[in-house]
Amino acid sequence: MSKEIRINAFLAFAPTHLSPGLWAHPRDRALDYNSLSLWTDLARTAERGGYDALFFADGISQYDVYGGSNAAGVRWGLQFPRLDPLLLVSAMAQVTEHLGFAVTSSVSYEAPFLFARRMSTLDHLTRGRIGWNIVTSFGQSGSRAIGQPDARPHDERYDLADEYMEIVYRLWEESWQDGAAVRDRDTRVFADPARVHEIRHEGRFFSMQGTHYSEPSPQRTPLLYQAGTSRRGKDFAARHAECVFLSSPTAQLVARDVADVRARAAALGRDPASVLFFALATVIVAPTSEEAQAKWQDIQRHVSLEGALALFSRWSGIDLSKYSPDDPLRYVKSEGMQSAIEAFTVADPERVWTIGELAIFNAIGGKGPVFIGSPTEVADALESWKAQTGIDGFNLSHALLPGTHEDFVDLVVPELRRRGVYKQDYRAGTLREKLYGEGHAHLSAPHPAASHRAATIEEPDHA
Ligand SMILES: Cc1cc2nc3c(=O)[nH]c(=O)nc-3n(C[C@H](O)[C@H](O)[C@H](O)COP(=O)(O)O)c2cc1C
């Protein structure tokens, strides 16, 4: 396992992501979430700090489980309003050279053909720095909003996702052969029709016929992230994901999931070390321990515990407004994010969480740990988590935006660099090459995307 610690910023294009209430803090800029400069400034800071990517969560379902309505979600601005992160990427790419951009998009809402074109567009415009966090979406309000029947049952969503992947792989990898866009001024041929192919698909969930509307982009298939750690979610990750995002409160749970997904990937013939893991964490750092503790106390005074419970209610599918703070949290099977409720119940039989404890824990940075301390203490904690779990790095959430990231870049990154566990500079090339090295611009066998590409190269279709 590499010693290198990788860092992404974990974000939402919204006033609140995972630290409810903090947009009201006097040093927070999240109320400017709908202005470009907040994000272009953040992108520059992240690149100065050698982050691999800005990772945007996304979704269109309301936070309406808590109290049976979206009132708390609206009042606190809980990931609502939320704008489309794909539309932010070009501006941030323009002010950076190396930083990657991972955007979440659901397989439940948009035809694969349209989505494949939008990702190819971003891969062209970022010169190969785009990633996709593949999600399946479980909120009923999102389905209703786009006129679909209720969200599908949990495992069926993953069946649909497998089929969706098959189609987008074929569009990205198979529809245009290498060299098809000849762009020849002399012969006045833009693209060779013999090397551009229509894709036809008839399946259980999708039926389509079309030629990819983008010539091959630098990565073809964007770098693939996945989050979702039910059994079915892990099988999906093992098959498709290059990077897996985990969010659990303890190192033990993260270690269990890392080992499990790597074993499943190995069983499918993939190199388990090629699946990179990022764990959710939030860092509150200051030059000294005491100052960091004071910063944390100050942040605590601004958090919304109601907001934290409303977030968790949506993830778990349990209306936590019905309980008092001293009630224990119990496992309930839901059609939502099974890993969320499991992490705080059956996964750790040693610990019974009360609703009040859960609210306090979740109020800063959601379900992941919060590391508070001096640069040395934080670097120790990050190194220790990495060693205990086998992860490759962290998706860092924030308390204050952009202050939490500015602190990390100014205080923790130099300490990690001094220890030799953090990149001094970016590698050349696409996002995939920055993570995997030269020659890895495209997915290669035995990843399922690569099989489509090989097929067209060996057997050109002249239809
Ligand atoms: C860490 C993490 C981050 C997620 N981020 C998103 C997101 O941004 N948008 C979304 O619609 N779903 C998101 N999901 C939901 C998953 O895509 C999936 O629908 C859900 O977790 C249920 O699958 P599971 O039971 O396998 O975890 C996330 C899940 C996890 C665990």
TrEMBL record:
<comment type="similarity">
    <text>Belongs to the NtaA/SnaA/DszA monooxygenase family.</text>
</comment>
<feature type="domain" description="Luciferase-like">
    <location>
        <begin position="14"/>
        <end position="392"/>
    </location>
</feature>
<dbReference type="InterPro" id="IPR011251">
    <property type="entry name" value="Luciferase-like_dom"/>
</dbReference>
<dbReference type="InterPro" id="IPR016215">
    <property type="entry name" value="NTA_MOA"/>
</dbReference>
<protein>
    <submittedName>
        <fullName>Monooxygenase</fullName>
    </submittedName>
</protein>
<feature type="binding site">
    <location>
        <position position="158"/>
    </location>
    <ligand>
        <name>FMN</name>
    </ligand>
</feature>
<dbReference type="GO" id="GO:0004497">
    <property type="term" value="F:monooxygenase activity"/>
</dbReference>
<keyword id="KW-0560">Oxidoreductase</keyword>
<dbReference type="InterPro" id="IPR051260">
    <property type="entry name" value="Diverse_substr_monoxygenases"/>
</dbReference>
<feature type="binding site">
    <location>
        <position position="230"/>
    </location>
    <ligand>
        <name>FMN</name>
    </ligand>
</feature>
<keyword id="KW-0285">Flavoprotein</keyword>
<feature type="compositionally biased region" description="Low complexity">
    <location>
        <begin position="442"/>
        <end position="454"/>
    </location>
</feature>
<feature type="binding site">
    <location>
        <position position="154"/>
    </location>
    <ligand>
        <name>FMN</name>
    </ligand>
</feature>
<dbReference type="InterPro" id="IPR036661">
    <property type="entry name" value="Luciferase-like_sf"/>
</dbReference>
<dbReference type="GO" id="GO:0016705">
    <property type="term" value="F:oxidoreductase activity, acting on paired donors, with incorporation or reduction of molecular oxygen"/>
</dbReference>
<keyword id="KW-0288">FMN</keyword>
<keyword id="KW-0503">Monooxygenase</keyword>
<feature type="binding site">
    <location>
        <position position="104"/>
    </location>
    <ligand>
        <name>FMN</name>
    </ligand>
</feature>
<feature type="binding site">
    <location>
        <position position="58"/>
    </location>
    <ligand>
        <name>FMN</name>
    </ligand>
</feature>
<dbReference type="Pfam" id="PF00296">
    <property type="entry name" value="Bac_luciferase"/>
</dbReference>
<feature type="region of interest" description="Disordered">
    <location>
        <begin position="442"/>
        <end position="463"/>
    </location>
</feature>
